[in-house]
Amino acid sequence: MDELAAARAELNQLEKQEQELLKQLFAVRFAAQAQRTKVEGLIKQVPPPVDRLPSELLFQIIELSIQTALVPCKSCDVHLEWKRELMKVSRRWRNLILHSPSLWSTIKVTPTWREQLVRDHVASSRQYPLDIEICSWSEMESRDRLVALLDIVTPCAHRWRSLAIRDDSTELHRSLVLELLDRMTFPTLTSVSMLNAPPFLDNLDGSSTQYTADFLAQERSPRLKFLELGVLFISIMPFRVPSGLVNLRLVLDDPFRLREVPPFFLELLSCNLTSLSLSGACWTFDQLPPNSVQFPLLETLVCSIRSGGGLMQALVAPMLSHFEYCPPVWDASPDAMFAGLGDKFSSVIRLVLSGTDSLLEVKAIHSTFPNVRHMVLRPHDSIPIFRPGDDSPSEPTWRHLESLTVDGPKPFSRDWSTFPYHLVRWLKHRQHTRQPKLRVRLSTVYATVDWSTIWDLHEMLHELCILEWAGVRFKMKMKIFGNSDSLQLVCMPTFYTTLAHLLSCLFRMFLGCPLTS
Questions:
Q1: What percent of the chain has pLDDT over 90?
Q2: What distance in Å separates the CA atoms of residue 403 and residue 347, rounded to the nearest whole number?
Q3: Has residue 302 been placed in a domain?
Q4: 7-35 burial, b if ≥16 CB within 10 A, otherwise e?
Q5: pLDDT tens digits for 42-66?
């Protein structure tokens, strides 16, 4: 009996202890729930990391986001819609966008913009410089609508920074705009683009007057630095490039009009130019006398025209340091193109070429540009071969060259299988002549390539140069492991997929959102 009583007493003691532990457990659970509620409340009070960013940094992020939204589609509607979406994120974002004049400085004079929208941009931009673009006026659009929009922006002509008149508007609408501009003064205008301006303006009485672009004169636009013109302007006389201009781009895209205009217009260009770009189909430069085009301050020349040999003979630019020759078709071999130039372009440090036939001799390129330090080869069906002459170890091959960028050739093109061997041969020759290693950057952006192809190129080149890669897109690969009872599918994503996922995770982290796989 004593043993039974002792067992009952111990059981009673354990049951009391169990009740005490349950009370403690309930108390701990209650306290934990209360603490969890408190923590969640404190988290809600703390703004997410993106809202703790300084206003200057947040503004740069928003500005970059708006600019990126315009890359795939240069539509003003996309610009506005994306800005509206960003304003919905939070009150702080809305206030920051509304009170940032630079985000409202681009104004499109186009039929899709209402008059009130243009007024809002003019008001929100305050005194910030304006970028005006006139575009998309078809025959169905009335001139009165265009005049109404121009009446809103022309009172702010004192703060216009850039003006672009696109060629997707009718000649009648462009004439109206140009006639209005010639009555105005633009004290802060620095950039103008007019690719298809009419040489004659149509009057309401049916007559026409020759257009002379008076608003581009030095006294009307004293700060004009960049000018982009089409071939029609070249036929306008007495049009003269403003003396203060430093950057000029001519688009010679009408060969029939060029036949009527001698190339001596180059002799009328400003001697103060530091950058000149010529593009389009042109065959008339052979008429230029040798050394007749003087540009004593020219530093950058971009030439994308056909038959540019005459221009090379006529051009005198002792300060030229950046030269691009990227014609649509090479009408002559590089030797014929640059023959007889001597050391005229010995000042060129950066050389950009594209489109030369790999079967043509390129020795003239070495002699014409002996002091090149940085070379870029643009994508084409083929690329120049750097031939060390007769393979003599003493043959010079750009001893000052520091970097080489090859944007191509296109993967799986006719030169894709041969170009690495020519490049290796040339690099070995440089190594044999004890020249320093080049920084070689390869870019194949036109197609996806296998990892094995990249690896083969790496094995061939990495010991001969400082090798870099840019814009390489790999194919997706899949592998299956396991047996019939257990299968495992492994996907090897592209580089861009991985990068996009990383950026997405970082952005979600800034917003305080949970990360998901």
A1: 25
A2: 17
A3: no
A4: eeeeeeeeeeeeeeeeeeeeeeeeeeeee
A5: 888 877 777 778 888 888 888 888 7
Which residue, among 368, 387, 471, 383, has the nearest Cα to 429 in the 3D structure?
387
Please give the Cα distance from 113 to 87 (Å, whole number): 19
Q: Are residues 332 and 372 in the same domain?
A: yes
Mean predicted confidence (pLDDT) in 359-372: 73
Q: Is 159 helix (H, G, I), strand (E, B) or coil?
A: helix
From the list 113, 271, 129, the residue with the least C-alpha distance to 191 is 129
In this structure, the number of other CB atoms found within 10 A of the CB of residue 133 comes to 18
What would the pLDDT profile of 399-441 be if each residue is shown by its tens digit? Answer: 889 998 887 655 445 555 566 777 788 888 888 888 888 998 8
Residue 516 lies in a domain: yes
Alpha helices in 154-269 (DSSP H): 171-181, 231-234, 255-260
Residues 449, 332 within the same domain: yes
Six-digit token string for 264: 């001596």
CB 248 within 8 A of CB 269: yes
Domain hosting 488: range is: 478-517
The Cα 234–Cα 250 span in angstroms is 9
Three-state DSSP at 57 gives helix
Unique residue bearing structure tokens 């703060």: 159
CA-to-CA distance for 82 and 67, rounded, in angstroms? 10
Question: Considering its fold, how many domains does the chain have in total?
Answer: 2
Sign of CA dihedral 447, 452, 455, 460: negative
Backbone angles phi, psi at 22, to 5 degrees: -65, -40
Asked if 391 and 402 sit in the same domain, the reply is yes
Are both 463 and 357 inside the same structural domain? Answer: yes
Q: How far is CA 11 from CA 4, 20, 21, 22, 24, in A?
A: 11, 14, 15, 16, 20
Q: Are residues 341 and 442 in the same domain?
A: yes
341 and 436 part of one domain: yes
Q: Which residues contact 280 (CB under 8 A, 6 or more apart)?
A: 231, 250, 251, 252, 253, 254, 304, 305
Q: Which of 260, 206, 208, 202 is nearest to 235 (CA)?
A: 260
Predicted pLDDT of residue 35: 92
Domain contains 396: yes
Look at strands 293-294 and 315-316 and give their pairing. Answer: parallel
Cα–Cα dist 414/504, whole Å: 39
Give the per-residue pLDDT at 167.
Answer: 83
Instruction: Examine the domain organization and report whether 361 and 467 are in the same domain.
Output: yes
Q: Is residue 149 situated within a structural domain?
A: no
498 and 400 in one domain? no
